[in-house]
């Protein structure tokens, strides 16, 4: 079982990237589980035709900790197993608590034994790297972390913070930095800036995604691009990215 965490600044297109990667991996015949680690609980929504699903933390609070596997999972497009951690009401409590609860309950309910995923994808908000948000990096969860960024300064800054956290805690058995994924915003010197960021952390840019109107068109249809436009050049970019990620994780 490969365990892969994808981090990035809020709004960088991380959930879109992860969901399309999940479909690309499922196309290869792999069993995939995608775990949304964000209080908004919308990471997997494009895999389920826009249908919201209950978040683990909400069910946990409602049922006072007594949750079942059926309650916290849904099956999405191409058989992708969908999980959303959720989070507290804004202003009330730690947002990272939802991630901690979700990962604990997935273990307790035997999710990995029941679904037997070949690949687990954690989609993690990367504006902060503390508490629950660092949980997928820790030993026993993700094996590799990939960072989605553009060439915009705030995105680069968030990417650097994530990479620094990994670098600082390598001696604690944290996940390895697999590389950076450039999700283009078409800003000046974009590829150069992301490559410089990668080199600062002795890593590389392992994937390049175009800024495509088809991505937005698919989102309007509440689906992934891989479902709506499987024969497009953009779909091939997601397939190439998935191949690159697999190659790094299998080294």
Automatic annotation (TrEMBL):
Cofactor(s) the protein needs: [4Fe-4S] cluster
The protein's enzyme class: oxidoreductase
PROSITE patterns given in the database record: NIFH_FRXC_1, NIFH_FRXC_2, NIFH_FRXC_3
One Pfam family, short name: Fer4_NifH
Keyword set, alphabetical order: 4Fe-4S, ATP-binding, Iron, Iron-sulfur, Metal-binding, Nucleotide-binding, Oxidoreductase
The EC number(s) this enzyme carries: 1.18.6.1
Superkingdom to which the source organism belongs: Bacteria
GO molecular function: 4 iron, 4 sulfur cluster binding; ATP binding; metal ion binding; nitrogenase activity
Function of the molecule: The key enzymatic reactions in nitrogen fixation are catalyzed by the nitrogenase complex, which has 2 components: the iron protein and the molybdenum-iron protein.
Family the entry assigns: Belongs to the NifH/BchL/ChlL family.
Record's subunit section: Homodimer.
PANTHER family given in the database record: LIGHT-INDEPENDENT PROTOCHLOROPHYLLIDE REDUCTASE IRON-SULFUR ATP-BINDING PROTEIN
Protein name: nitrogenase
Organism: Dorea formicigenerans
